[in-house]
Amino acid sequence: MDKNETMDRKTFLKKGLFAVAQPFVSMIESKVRDATKRRAVRPPGAIDEVSFLGKCTRCDDCVKACHQNAIKHAGEFDGLAVGTPIIVPSETPCYLCDDFVCIKACKEEALLMVKKEDVRMGLASIDTKKCNRWADIDPMCDYCFDRCPLKGRAIFMDNRGPEIDDKKCAGCGICEYVCPADPKAVNVMPV
What we know:
Blueprint: H1 3-35, H2 49-55, H3 61-65, E1 71-73, E2 85-87, H4 101-105, E3 122-126, H5 143-147, E4 155-157, E5 162-164, H6 174-178, E6 186-190
Antiparallel strand pairs: 1-2, 3-6, 4-5
């Protein structure tokens, strides 16, 4: 057996093993991506989800520090995130406090200090078919615009109704919380 024949066998075995293993590796990568996908709105200053899940000790310091009681615990159906801090805008939004006591309370640095205009917890979207103003149900409705802590920047009024600036929306959820439409015309999704 010469050296070229041995190399061919090695190459063949490597390629064969790779071909057999690749579907399993892809499946595991997919499962990890799915398990660590951000499913909930996190408090201001939350780091990327994988790092967040690794650093957050579920100590409740940010929950206790929140003056508005906006921070809750992820529930039993939230997979790896169970017990971690989340914000449920339809129940209690984040009011983007000036002093960010929740971030200051996080000793593990799962929440890092950020300027109010740089907060990106989620992204609001408006369903114009459900919006009272867009649908001409209440042409004076401006609750979402009026209550937005970044009024005129994150949410502004178009000729027909409110619009969201995707690059400036903090995802705090106040617009969703105050929306009088039933069902809500504004929804905040995690980013």
